[in-house]
Amino acid sequence: MRSITVKAPVNIAVIKYWGKRDENLIIPLNDSISGTLSIDDMCAHTSVASSPQFTSDRMWLNGEEVDISANKRLVNCLKQIRSESTHDWTHHSLHICSRNNFPTAAGLASSAAGYACLMYSLATLYGIESPERISSLARIGSGSACRSVYGGFVQWLKGTDSQTSVARQIVDETYWPEMRVLVLVVRDTQKDTSSTAGMQLTVATSALMKHRVEVVVPARVEAMVKAIKDRDFHSFAEITMKDSNGFHAVCEDTYPPLQYMNDTSRSVRRFCHQYNEYYGANRVAYTFDAGPNACLYLLDRDVAPVVKLLLRYQTGLEVKGQAVDVNGVELESGLTARFDDKPCIGSDSLRYIISTRVGSGPQVLTDEHQCLLDGQGLPK
Amino acid sequence: MRSITVKAPVNIAVIKYWGKRDENLIIPLNDSISGTLSIDDMCAHTSVASSPQFTSDRMWLNGEEVDISANKRLVNCLKQIRSESTHDWTHHSLHICSRNNFPTAAGLASSAAGYACLMYSLATLYGIESPERISSLARIGSGSACRSVYGGFVQWLKGTDSQTSVARQIVDETYWPEMRVLVLVVRDTQKDTSSTAGMQLTVATSALMKHRVEVVVPARVEAMVKAIKDRDFHSFAEITMKDSNGFHAVCEDTYPPLQYMNDTSRSVRRFCHQYNEYYGANRVAYTFDAGPNACLYLLDRDVAPVVKLLLRYQTGLEVKGQAVDVNGVELESGLTARFDDKPCIGSDSLRYIISTRVGSGPQVLTDEHQCLLDGQGLPK
Q1: Of A10, A310, A324, B175, which sees the most CB atoms within 10 A?
Q2: Pick from A78-92, A277-291, A293-307, B273-287: least confident
Q3: Peptide bond before residue B257 is cis, with ω within 30 degrees of 0
């Protein structure tokens, strides 16, 4: 039995992927850019094993066996990666065990980390070393997974076919070491439209989508790459916020409209603008995916003040992930006065915060204890 | 003393006005279309009087005297209309008394009805008879007021200057007699950005606005005129809903974003789509202006069923305006089952409903009892 165990990260887009030009190959209508989040705080964790003794491909996800044949994309991925390897064991059956190491119900896109982790594991097992090939293979599983195969900040080039639609690293995780992320998990009851169905509907019905894809996003991508390379937080934040809003604008323009943000999401947005207005420059940037949770990008100096301000609205709010010491922080009285004057966030509207940072790409784990499969290739 | 008393209607746009190309003359970036609401249920009510005995222009609005000189647009309007009349009494001082006859805090644009009423009164007093001139004069007071000088469905032609930027009637109020309107007044705490400031910010910052103005709206205007002339409710509703969403999309795309709708507004939107999906055709259309209240356009057959469905969510909800007899209505069990399965609207999220219809343009009132000024030209 040969086995490989990998941890792979979540990524949070600052220029959004929304809309495919090829549904089967998952070729997007525009480039997108994301930050990769540290696997210390959130990750997918996958072990793959192949053995001539295994009688069929089997998979366990978060503790439960799943029917691989029922998942067309998964079948596709396995077929494709096997076709690209020349090793003997490529044709042996596989056992796959995977779990997501982040709080349940966080509403964070688990499929990106999951497929990146799976395809990175299999690529390692099968001797496929080209990061571009791994990125392309992950893309077939879940579009934005192609960005989770790199750390730091990552651009998914839309490309024209399966070979050219791949991610590449803009800068690695050491380039902008002050960059931090707070995920604000929002209370919500409304069931969201899946992003696959949602983006199809936007492409089919939004009168503004074509302009976004052809004119607005290309200019933002170029400006964002520059902002990241220049470590220009003010510009980075402005583009991030504008593109999040532009993405939700085309959701609003979809027929019937897609409603991912709720009033709490919007209150977090006001909170950020109010914070930035106080300082006369952008110090925190929000971005929202296809759900109500907020991801805030900010530099390390602002993490504790922002968390302390949020705690003024909602005492007892739990912070998971990296510890945040709010005791040492003295908020400026002008700042608190402004927020007392215009309170933004309801007292019970957030579930918790995850404090994290921009981190590395997938990591192969060599410690046998980290393998999720036992000597027989069954879940431990 | 010469006096004139007029009632003028509110109008609700189905193709939205948002964005000026000339701030002073109020020349809009695109054509817009609205339905005029019956003055029986909501109206502005204005008396104007001129007399050589009056020593200065004075105005009372909703019971309180206002300082005319502090309102630049009002000063502009008075100056402009006086310059267009040749009567002797044009140079006499004016007394103006005006009030809005609709529920306070309805959050409905009172300025459109108010300026239409004022300029229609003064035009009558000064012998200006051209509807196009009256429309243009009302426009200088408040852009969308130019549409309230006609009944039925009305198009504001953007034009290129003050003479050509005027409204014209598409069809009068008898053309589509089944057309009804329900105004759903929504509970809200958030203070909205004024539409004047909001539209300036959208024009200055939204990356999607130019495309809306130049490409999207012109096609919708053409299709909407056809739908109205054909009395094609399904198309009328689709264009109305799409343009409301398109308008709120550019608000979302504004930087910082403009937030006019809230979660209740969005729940009303879902309610309408659910109702239409049940029937497999559009039977009710929502539209939202720069605030959270919903205006629903629908045909008479659907008024009682829609109100009865809303009462299932919120018992005791008050209906103002035209009486709606829900007792005689039997809701289809498939319809109620669908709404029970997916409840949309919170149990205390609406304040009340105003039930009304598409109605006539401004009416000159000849009954002396309706005059708001006494024999001395002071408020009664």
Answers
A1: A10
A2: A78-92
A3: no
Q: Give the ipTM of the model, two decimals please.
A: 0.93
**What's the number of CA atoms in the CB half-sphere (13 Å) around residue B308?**
16
Helix (H, G, I), strand (E, B) or coil at A239: helix
- Chain B residues with CB under 8 Å of a chain A CB are 206-208, 211-212, 215-216, 238, 241-242, 245-246, 248-250, 252-257, 259, 262-263, 266, 269-270, 273
In the block, residue with structure tokens 């907020």: A294
Beta carbons within 10 angstroms of residue B188's beta carbon:
19
Residue type, B89: W
Using CA coordinates, name the residue in chain A closest to B248. Answer: A252
Interface test with A, best of B190, B224, B245 (most A CBs within 10 A): B245
**Running DSSP on this structure, what letter comes out for residue A256?**
S
Q: What is the per-residue pLDDT across A286-333, written as a single tens digit (0 to 9) for each?
A: 999 999 999 999 999 999 999 999 998 888 899 999 999 999 899 999
Q: How confident is the model at residue B101 (pLDDT cuts 50, 70, 90)?
A: confident
DSSP A145-164: GGGGGSSSEEEE---SSTTT
pLDDT of residue A226 exceeding 60, the answer is yes
The alpha carbon of residue A12 is apart from the nearest alpha carbon of chain B, in Å, by 20
Instruction: Compute the distance between CA of residue A177 and CA of residue B72 in angstroms, rounded to an integer.
Output: 53
Measured between alpha carbons, how far is A194 from B178 in angstroms, rounded to an integer? Answer: 39
> Domains in chain A, ordered, with CATH?
2-172 (3.30.230.10), 179-357 (3.30.70.890)
Q: Which two tokens stand for residue B368?
A: 């002396």
Interface test with A, best of B206, B235, B253 (most A CBs within 10 A): B253
Q: What is the pLDDT of residues A98-134, one digit of tens each?
A: 999 876 555 566 789 999 999 999 999 999 999 999 9
Hey, how many other C-beta atoms are within 10 angstroms of the C-beta on A21?
Answer: 15
**Given this model, what pLDDT does residue B104 score?**
56
**pLDDT tens track for A198-209:** 999 999 999 999
Instruction: Give the angle subtended at the CA of A35 by the CAs of A32 and A39, to the nearest 5°.
Output: 135
A270: distance to nearest CA of chain B, Å?
8
Q: What is the DSSP string of A179-223?
A: EEEEEEEEP--SPPPPHHHHHHHHHHH-SSHHHIIIIIHHHHHHH
d(CA B241, CA B266): 12
Mutation for testing the A interface, residue in B211, B278, B344 having most A CBs under 10 Å:
B211
β pairing state of A319-321 and A363-364: unpaired
CB A257 to CB B246 under 8 A? no
* pLDDT tens figures, B208-258: 999 999 999 999 999 999 999 999 999 999 999 999 999 999 999 999 999
